[in-house]
Amino acid sequence: MKKWMSSGTPWIWLNAGAVSLSLVMVVGLLMLITVRGLGHFWPSQVVEAWYQPPGSERVRLLGEVVNSETVTPAVLADAGMSVPEGASLVTRLLFKHGNRDLTGRDFHWYVEPFMSARANPADVIVIERMEWGNFYGYLRALHAGSNVVADNADSARGLLKDWVQRAQDLRQRIRTIERRDIGRVNDRMEALRLEQRRHELAGTLSASALQSLAQRQAALDQEYEQYEQQRQALRDELRQDVLVAETMDGRLIKIPLANIVNTYMPNAMGLFAKLMLYGHNLVEFVTGSPREANTEGGVFPAIFGTVMMVLLMSIIVTPMGVLAAIYLREYAKQGLFVRMIRISVNNLAGVPSIVFGVFGLGFFVYWMGGSIDRLFFPESLPSPTFGTPGLLWASLTLALLTLPVVIVATEEGLTRIPRAVREGSLALGATKAETLWRVVVPMAAPAMMTGLILAVARAAGEVAPLMLVGVVKLAPNLPLDAEFPFLHLDRKFMHLGFHIFDVGFQSPNVEAARPLVYATALMLVVLIVILNLTAIAIRNHLREKYKSGSD
After folding, report:
1. DSSP secondary structure string for all residues of 345-362
2. Measured between alpha carbons, how far is 36 from 344 in angstroms, rounded to an integer?
3. How far is residue 217's CA from residue 222's CA, in Å, rounded to a whole number?
4. Based on CB atoms within 10 Å of each CB, which residue in 6, 7, 272, 357 is the most buried?
5. How far apart are CA 477 and CA 492, in angstroms?
6. Is 131 exposed, middle or buried (0-12, 13-18, 19+ CB in 10 A)?
7. Are 462 and 313 in contact (CB under 8 A)?
8. Which of 296, 293, 295, 292 has its CA nearest to residue 284?
């Protein structure tokens, strides 16, 4: 036994066991996120049942069963629910019956033994709405203003798809007018206001200049009025169409098609139809915008903001880290001062990320951004332009956060380049600068890419510093659009990591938000993997190109 212990074999097996356990835990976590996240988009069956606890009236239930758990009678009693007599364990079901505008909440627990006549009626319709979440009920009629277009479920069902598509087209036209046409006019009005303010500060606001500004303002007001009339006409047209549906308690309500995102009848759908709807829901989640306090809709603005921030951070941190490492390794005289710098760089890697956020808020936002506003945008003050959290400051803050990783990785790559390579280049007549930039740096490029990969992996998942320097719950506009200067570094943005925090811990509807937490977490993992695989592919290409130097 002593000989076996001294051979080191137990430690090898112990290390292998630890690695295997870690892999199992990581794979298990990823599988949990995948199953919970992707399962949210599958169209579940809608259950209809009658529910009557002791001493209460018999009511009809309608909705999706999203959870089931077996509890003791004491748990039910603490929750104020009726307990079946003589039961030691009781199953209760969590129903998502939607209709939050009518009932106040769309999730409710029910005791299964008190349910009867459970069924899956084929005529149940699920309506995804812009507001108030899903509606569960029965389609009864379609109205166009005061005209009844379809007065029964069969005829209404035949027209509903076209009507919903027409409503979506009208909403898209309204959104285009608001964001493109009216948005451009508003930008020009703001530029005109700033021009007048600039003249006032410079003391050059003459009568002729004021008259010219007034004429341009009048033209913009007229243009704005035209777009506003177009938008109002589309809104009036959209408000005319109404869907009449029956709730589970027999009430008839009117749902404007302007508020409808999609409709489907899950109990009447086959496998292929459900697969098509599942794919549509996934695409809508990836490409759509959030709604209903981020508990519904998609995450495209958060995906875009995350990718844009990581790309800007990479563009900033790579040259900074590489140049710093080259100076420390190739030019600085090795001694106490350089050793102190290296110790400081290593210690910087261990500083909590929220500290970088506080530094970024104080230095970048308040001092640097405020100075830029005073120098270049005085006409906008006191409203800040760059003196407020935004995409640029978030990218710079994360660049500082990941700078030590790039410096250390690049230094290690430079150290591995054989001294004979440098001496051979110098012996052939190349200068030190030519040797460095044409021989040494290309051979160390794979190590630089390794540092960038580590930086991207850390920066993409950081949340704490971003809460102080630019990320928001909901950003009305993307930081990249067709308006000059196209990339708006001063705008706030959404981020997948913060979106997970907001949906999981700040949402007013916890049950509705829980599946989106898993789905958004899966999207963040996939995004990080894609970014890392891209960097790894570039690194492998460089490694093959300079294989002799990296070996």
Report:
1. HHHHTTS-HHHHHHHIII
2. 43
3. 9
4. 357
5. 9
6. exposed
7. no
8. 296
Quote the strand ranges of 124-257, DSSP E. 124-129, 134-144, 147-150, 241-246, 252-256
Q: Note the residue count of the chain.
A: 551
Q: What's 334's DSSP letter? A: P
* Amino acid occupying residue 473: K
pLDDT confidence tier of residue 547, bands split at 50, 70 and 90: low
Residue 531 carries which side chain, given as an amino acid letter?
L
Rounded Cα distance, 139 and 526, in Å: 39
Local confidence band at 428 (pLDDT 50, 70, 90 cut-offs):
confident
How far is residue 50 from each of residues 47, 59, 116, measured CA to CA in Å? 10, 6, 5
Write the CB contacts of 90 (distance below 8 Å, at least 6 apart in sequence). Answer: 70, 71, 72, 73, 76, 83, 84, 111, 112, 113
Query: How is the chain split into domains, by residue range?
Result: 47-120, 137-268, 318-550
DSSP string, 90-125: EEEEEEE---HHHHS-SEEEEEGGGEEEEE--TTEE
The CATH number of the structural domain formed by 47-120 is 2.30.30
Q: pLDDT (tens digit, 9 = 90+) per residue, 133-170? A: 899 999 999 998 888 888 888 888 888 889 999 999 99
Residue 397, classed as helix, strand or coil, is helix
Residue 551 has pLDDT above 70, yes or no: no
In the structure encoding, which two tokens stand for residue 99, read together? Answer: 């209709």
Domain 318-550 superfamily per CATH: MetI-like (1.10.3720.10)
* Gap between the Cα atoms of 448 and 126, Å rounded: 53
Cross-strand partners of 70:
91
How far apart are the C-alpha atoms of 466 and 262, rounded to whole Å?
A: 34
Q: Tell me the two tokens of residue 300.
A: 């495209």
Range list of β-strands (E), 147-187: 147-150
Largest CA distance in the chain: 101
Residue carrying structure tokens 């409709």 = 263
d(CA 247, CA 253): 8
Contact between 67 and 94 (Cβ < 8 Å) = yes
Query: What pLDDT, in 10s, does the model give residues 514-534?
Result: 889 999 999 999 998 898 888
As a dihedral over the C-alpha atoms of residue 58, residue 95, residue 117, residue 88, rounded to 10 degrees, the angle is: -80
